[in-house]
């Protein structure tokens, strides 16, 4: 039995499918943790800070009232000495010419009551937009800083060890979320998640690009891996809202921590994270890739399309609380159409984009993102959010599943086929969207309102969409002058230096075998 298990383990370590499974699970858990906090944090802060402060400042109960209020309720009082007005037991009595007449009490003026189910403290909720936006953006800001270093690290020591480091940090962040009771601790847990996410996403996508060297196979593998990302987004928000409503705040995070342990065990079996396996060739420097206009256009498409859903994460639940009086479980369910359609879009266009043209899918996707965002403020109930959120998720799936393979293809065509740095740039583009979106979105909502925020970010996506046409036929390294001077819409497929496929995992003898093959 031991021999059979060892044989199965050895075969698994050489299987590209199991590598894809490891990356799929890592992206799934990362994005479940990313979105499970979306419906929890606004209502948790409202319950602990606003309602807690008001309950502590509430007046004493009626049982402690002065004894005078317990006197018999006289309706009038006759006086032989004057004709004054006397108040007895809350009623006003006027005595004129020895005759008593009762005047009913007037209730104090007050603001009109809120509809049933609507939370109080509108000003608190408006201020909370900014605080929740900064908390959500902290993960992306930290990830933005860490990503370039992780890309360089993967070029030096390989992808296995950074992948396992990401699992450890993600587990610690999840446990901290479960037991954090203040805004400060939640902020630290969210920032810690950004470090773990940087290691997992950069190492995972770079590993897939190095294992799947064929452009078509790489596109399909990226689509499946992004399906894990989509499934995490799909499950996260509804799972968090239901568990928080019916079980408690800690329950969803403890479940995620248990799943993270299973992912760590899978990585130990498949990836051998104690093994250092650097790339055989020197990767393209980060600054060189950042000066490539085609890389920047692709990264911009990722950034602006994902910025739309990043802005919705902190602002949509609070807007629903104010305008729709939505209960807690609906705050997460509002993202369900976007998550389902994103899952469909990434898996569908991971295959179709290579046939239709990835640049075309990116262009159409960004235009649909803009139109969907313009329609979000038109909703008056949660059912009115189904179509715009569904269109938003489907369009972002089109963009992500098309642009991620383009990033790997651009490196093959125009640079050295080492992928850690370029996928660090792709992850940085995600992070800019998820950092600028929530942090600026909360301030913009407070200044001009939620509808105008949607109009602004929708217009940006529509205006950026035509730039994806530049990705139609990116020139190869040695063909820049010829292709640009011809101006013909050819789809470049040639590689400057074909890379010999290597078995996975990389061993010390792989480079010698590659040289003999060449």
From TrEMBL:
Region (Disordered): 97-120, 491-518
Catalytic activity: serotonin(in) + 2 H(+)(out) = serotonin(out) + 2 H(+)(in); dopamine(in) + 2 H(+)(out) = dopamine(out) + 2 H(+)(in)
Sorted UniProt keywords: Cytoplasmic vesicle, Glycoprotein, Membrane, Neurotransmitter transport, Synapse, Transmembrane, Transmembrane helix, Transport
Pro residues bias: start-end ranges: 104-116
UniProt family annotation: Belongs to the major facilitator superfamily. Vesicular transporter family.
Record membrane topology: Multi-pass membrane protein
One term under GO cellular component: terminal bouton
Pfam families membership: MFS_1 (PF07690)
GO-annotated molecular function: serotonin:sodium:chloride symporter activity; xenobiotic transmembrane transporter activity
InterPro entries recorded: MFS, MFS_dom, MFS_trans_sf, MFS_Vesicular_Transporter, Tet-R_TetA/multi-R_MdtG-like
GO BP term, example: aminergic neurotransmitter loading into synaptic vesicle
Protein name: VMAT1 protein
Localisation: Cytoplasmic vesicle, Secretory vesicle, Synaptic vesicle membrane
Boundaries of every Major facilitator superfamily (MFS) profile domain copy: 68-476
Annotated source species: Urocolius indicus
Membrane spanning stretches: 18-41, 165-189, 195-212, 224-244, 250-271, 292-312, 332-352, 359-379, 385-406, 418-437, 449-471
């Amino acid at each position: 039995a031991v021999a059979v298990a060892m044989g199965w383990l050895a075969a698994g370590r050489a299987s590209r499918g199991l590598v894809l499974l490891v990356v799929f699970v890592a992206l799934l858990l990362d994005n479940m943790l990313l979105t499970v906090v979306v419906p929890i944090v606004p209502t948790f802060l409202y319950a602990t800070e606003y309602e807690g402060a008001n309950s502590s400042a509430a007046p004493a109960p009626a049982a402690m009232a002065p004894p005078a209020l317990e006197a018999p309720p006289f309706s009038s009082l006759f006086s032989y000495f004057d004709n004054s007005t006397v108040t007895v037991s809350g009623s006003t009595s006027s005595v004129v010419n020895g005759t008593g007449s009762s005047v009913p009490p007037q209730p104090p003026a007050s603001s009109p009551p809120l509809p049933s189910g609507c939370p109080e403290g509108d000003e608190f909720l408006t201020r909370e937009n900014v605080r929740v936006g900064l908390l959500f953006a902290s993960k992306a800001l930290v990830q933005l800083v860490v990503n370039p270093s992780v890309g360089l690290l993967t070029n030096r020591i390989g992808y296995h060890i950074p992948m396992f480091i990401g699992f450890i940090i993600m587990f610690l962040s999840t446990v901290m979320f479960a037991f954090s009771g203040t805004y400060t601790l939640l902020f630290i847990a969210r920032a810690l998640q950004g470090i773990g996410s940087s290691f997992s996403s950069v190492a995972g996508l770079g590993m897939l690009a190095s294992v799947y060297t064929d452009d078509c196979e790489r596109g399909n593998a990226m689509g499946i891996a992004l399906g894990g990302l989509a499934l995490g987004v799909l499950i996260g928000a509804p799972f968090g809202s239901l568990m928080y409503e019916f079980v408690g705040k800690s329950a969803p995070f403890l479940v995620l921590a248990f799943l993270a342990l299973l992912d760590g065990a899978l990585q130990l079996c498949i990836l051998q994270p104690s093994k250092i396996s650097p790339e055989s060739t020197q990767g393209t420097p980060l600054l060189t890739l950042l000066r490539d206009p085609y890389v920047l256009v692709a990264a911009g498409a990722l950034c602006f399309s994902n910025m739309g859903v990043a802005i919705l994460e902190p602002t949509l639940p609070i807007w629903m609380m104010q305008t729709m009086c939505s209960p807690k479980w609906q705050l997460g369910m509002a993202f369900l159409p976007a998550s389902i359609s994103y899952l469909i879009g990434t898996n569908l266009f991971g295959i179709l984009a290579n046939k239709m043209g990835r640049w075309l899918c990116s262009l159409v996707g960004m235009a649909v993102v803009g139109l969907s965002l313009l329609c979000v403020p038109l909703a008056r109930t949660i059912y009115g959010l189904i179509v715009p959120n569904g269109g938003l998720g489907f369009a972002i799936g089109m963009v992500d599943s098309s642009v991620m393979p383009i990033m790997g293809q651009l490196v093959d065509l125009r640079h050295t086929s080492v992928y850690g740095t370029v996928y660090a740039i792709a992850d940085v583009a995600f992070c800019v969207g998820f950092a600028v979106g929530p942090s600026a979105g909360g301030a913009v909502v407070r200044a001009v309102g939620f509808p105008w925020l949607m109009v602004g970010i929708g217009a940006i996506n529509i205006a950026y969409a035509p730039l994806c046409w530049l990705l139609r036929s990116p020139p190869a390294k040695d063909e820049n002058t010829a292709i640009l001077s011809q101006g013909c819409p050819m789809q470049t497929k040639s590689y400057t230096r074909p890379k010999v496929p290597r078995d996975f995992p990389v061993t010390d003898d792989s480079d010698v075998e590659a040289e003999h093959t060449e």
